[in-house]
Amino acid sequence: MEIPVFNKDGQKVDSLTVDETSLGGEVNPALIKQAFVMYHANLRQGSARTRSRGDIEGSTKKLYRQKGTGNARMGPKRSPIRRGGGVTFAKTKTREEYRVAMPVKMRRRANRNALLAKLVDAEVKVLDSLEFDSPKTRPFSDMLAKLGIDRSCVVACTPDNVNVRLAARNLEGVSLCNCGQLTCWEMLNHRYLVVGKAELQAWLAGPSSKTDKSGSRVKKADAAEAA
Questions:
Q1: Residue 97: Cβ within 10 Å count
Q2: Which residues span the domain enclosing 198?
Q3: pLDDT of 86-124, one tens digit each?
Q4: Do residues 166 and 76 both lie within one domain?
């Protein structure tokens, strides 16, 4: 697959060849969805709490007498049927666990397959260089306009690329992430992906490329060497 490489003026200056088989060959929606659900669930803190009627401040006195008023029977104001009252089945756990596990090799395949889906839809904008001389928003905004980005986008850059991070942080619909931490969650939550050619090549050749049995062998070898 030939991926066009653009400059900051939106002109094609080069191309990048990517093997489709290394990205899964074809889009696997079931695998991508499984990984997306995992990333989404793991973002939950599980710290949501509600108060029962016993936790609400206020008097336990009956609001008015039972009979003779012509109104319906009514208890104290802390009752769950009244606004501001307690919750019938309150969440009282110390912490709820929503974490979902997924094998490492499956996660890596899902991330690479999500990139393939973006490439098929022509929603990946690869730049020859994602470097700016100054941290100004206007040049970065003009670059996005010249690339034809009219929807939300995620910009994958290195942590030390301070100018890009400062220039893009004030733009609406633009998110930033470290190129080494690019996942299907980031890609599928945005319409476009903006990444430099060097950063994309490093991501393809990095740990995300270990999607077969060699990935586990490399991990064990690194652990043995560290020991």
A1: 9
A2: 2-28+103-226
A3: 999 998 887 788 899 999 999 999 999 999 999 999 999
A4: no
* Rounded CA separation 109/28 (Å): 10
Q: Which residues pair with 156 in a beta bridge?
A: 177, 195
Same-domain check for residues 183 and 219: yes
Counting the structural domains of the chain, the total is 2
Statement to judge: residues 140 and 220 lie in one domain = yes
Distance in angstroms (rounded) separating the CA atoms of residues 49 and 40 = 20
Q: Distances from the Cα of 159 to the Cαs of 47, 109, 178, in angstroms?
A: 30, 24, 6
| Rounded-to-integer distance, Cα 108 and Cα 114, Å | 10
Question: What are 40-60's pLDDT values in tens digits?
Answer: 999 988 888 899 999 998 888
Residues 3, 16 contacting (CB under 8 angstroms):
yes
pTM over 0.85: no
Same domain for 197 and 90? no
Closest of 129, 156, 174, 144 to residue 7, by C-alpha:
129
157 domain-assigned: yes
